[in-house]
Specification:
heterodimer, A: 136 residues, alpha+beta, 2 helices, B: mainly beta
């Protein structure tokens, strides 16, 4: 029912569900930035984040465009894809979601990341969040 | 799709793509 209500509220406020993914190789000690850019005039709500690498000791720092840290994913999954659902409306951003990956594993690894984002017109952001709050 | 970027230099764009309304860019920054 939670997803059905979320879809109904998202539709009411002209929201759109989107996804982004990236796969890349990274040498030991390197930092790679993955940027997810959403249209101007939209607010992005990070709903889910998933991924995996081939090695341990991969850090993923989720940030806003201005560098504010949303959260760190410190135990990045190795070998097996994992995906987590986030508290709704807690990780909102404008324009860009930035994820910085640091590889401290001692060798190269491939890294996969996938995010699910709900896009809501920024003009309807307050109404959307109030509608979500009323579900609680 | 093969992963790319192992030999990327600092500042180099590894890939850019767009699916739906979300653009994805991968850059080595350090």
């Amino acid at each position: 029912m939670y997803d059905l209500k979320l879809h109904a509220i998202a539709k009411k406020y002209k929201g759109e569900f989107g996804a982004g993914s990236a796969i890349f190789s990274q040498t030991d000690g390197a930092t790679t930035r993955v940027t997810f850019t959403i249209p101007i005039g939209m607010t992005g709500y990070l709903l889910k984040h998933g991924g995996y690498a081939q090695k341990t000791d991969i850090l993923a720092e989720f940030k806003t465009e201005t560098g504010d840290v949303l959260f760190n994913w410190e135990e990045y999954p190795d070998s097996t894809f994992e995906e987590y659902q986030l508290p709704l409306t807690e990780y909102a951003f404008k324009n860009k979601l930035v994820v910085d990956f640091t590889n401290s594993s001692g060798s190269s690894t491939d890294i996969l990341i996938k995010v699910s984002i709900l896009l809501i017109p920024t003009t309807k952001e307050d109404l959307f969040e109030k509608a979500i709050d009323r579900l609680g | 799709m093969a992963a790319k970027g192992e030999n990327a230099k600092v500042g180099e764009i590894i890939s850019e793509s767009k699916k739906g309304k979300i653009k994805v860019k991968i850059v080595r920054i350090n």
